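Morning F.,

Quick status update on the modeling queue. The single chain you submitted on Monday has been processed. Sequence for confirmation:
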Amino acid sequence: MVTKPAYTKKELEDLRGRLLEERRELESQLATIEESSFATSQSDLSGEVSFDEENADAGTFTFERERDLSIENNVRDLLGKIDRALERMDEGTYGICVRCGKPIEKARLKALPYVDLCIKDAQAQARR
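Structure tokens below.
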């Protein structure tokens, strides 16, 4: 059973504005990460090191590269969640839990405007 979200037009406009602002910030972060990746030499990307480089330097670079890739993946994941939230707004299903069809708590959406599960279903998913 899907119910109608109990959000006013103003609340939805405010949430859309927050989502769009967060999307712009994430796109900026992603561009910065990608620029720094392209600025890195091919030998650095492949992990090739010369004989005179310290192993610690290579290890540090590898750690930093893995960290950057992890951050990049997290940013892309959040961008996807934001895009899906904006699509749900356009479809009129924003604020409805995709699992149980009940309204998502307003406080939850205010804190995380891109979520698609109510607290109960998010907790159930986290336990799995």
